[in-house]
Amino acid sequence: MTILSNLSIDLTDFTGRILIVSDLYGHFELLLKGLSKLTQSGDEVVVITTGNLFDWGPSPCQLLEAVVYKKFGDRKVHFFTVVGFHELLMTDAITQKYLKTFRYFPDTHTRKHWRSLGGSWHDSYDQILLERDIYKIDYPLVINLKTKLGTYIIGSSDIPHDGGDWNTLMATLNKLDNQNLRIMASNITRTRYFLESGKTIDDISLVVLGVHQPDQLKRILSGQTELAKSTLCLFPNNWDGLSNAPLDFKIRFLDITESEYGSCYEF
Predict the structure, then answer these.
(1) In this structure, what DSSP letter does residue 214 have?
(2) What is the CATH number of the domain that holds 191?
(3) What is the spatial distance between Cα 158 and Cα 50, in angstroms, rounded to a whole number?
(4) Domains: count for the chain
(5) With contact defined as beta carbons under 8 Å apart, do 195 and 227 qualify?
């Protein structure tokens, strides 16, 4: 697994469906259900998720295999994701290629910590294949997406935005080394309910985040501020991601194929 500062995806000439999907938490069957309802056999589809892919759910191993080996039935799926808090837990417990001292050991404290927060699924995945497969997926802090209808920023719980120029910020993030990128990722992926910034970014159709929609954003120093109208929180569950997933867990799809602001569907 590689944490990237950002990933730019240009789909201005893409003719298939474009779906942004909330945190999956190991619910591969819900992803397939949504794809079956929103696409047709043989369709080419871009799926972008808001992180937290595998932990707590009923089918994380199947989801990992699908992402790595492109097993999405009879749809041609191009799969992308941003980094979430649970991806950081995962990489704390698995070899990091740039630090050979961080080898994977079956009984390390980090593995136990990951297991306690939903990562026990990895015990049933071949450990050698797990390390190999995890590193076939890149995890950017944010995805900058451009389509023929709009421009979007996709993140997990928040985006590293201080109200300044977005392109300048991206250039600054690109200069960070891997360790500082992990620190930044840790700072912006730990919450499901609080957004540090409600500021609007110029020339962006939507900022799409994988958090639960708050009624208002509580600010320590300035009271309360409205959520920026250009920000959409996709996560449909009133759940903190730190215990067993609710039985009525849902995922939400934002289909931006035919309109700038898209249409939402829950499964």
Answers:
(1) -
(2) 3.60.21.10
(3) 10
(4) 1
(5) yes
Judge whether 18 and 255 are in contact, CB under 8 Å. Answer: yes
* Residues 168 and 134 sit within 8 Å (Cβ to Cβ): no
Structure tokens of 152?
Answer: 């979007």
Tokens of 92: 């704390």
CA pair distance 212, 194, nearest whole angstrom: 8
pLDDT one-digit tens code per residue, 161-171: 766 788 888 89
Separation CA 55–CA 73 (nearest Å): 22
What ranges make up the beta strands (E) of 94-192?
Answer: 138-147, 151-155
- CB 262, CB 256: distance < 8 Å: yes
Q: How far apart are CA 133 and CA 146, in angstroms?
A: 28
User: Which domain does 54 fall in, by range?
Assistant: 1-264
Least trusted range by pLDDT, from 76-90, 110-124, 126-140, 178-192: 178-192
Adjacent-strand bridge partners of 255: 19, 263
Give the pLDDT confidence of 119-140 residue by residue, as tens digits. Answer: 999 988 887 788 888 888 999 9
Structure confidence by residue, pLDDT tens digits, 60-76: 999 999 999 998 989 99
CB contact burial 138-164 (16+ within 10 A = b; e otherwise): ebbbbbbbebebbebbbbbbbbbbeee
Backbone angles phi, psi at 98, to 5 degrees: -85, -10
Q: Which residues contact 239 (CB under 8 A, 6 or more apart)?
A: 192, 212, 245, 246, 249
- 3-class state of residue 77 by DSSP: strand
The alpha carbons of the chain give a radius of gyration, in whole angstroms, of 18
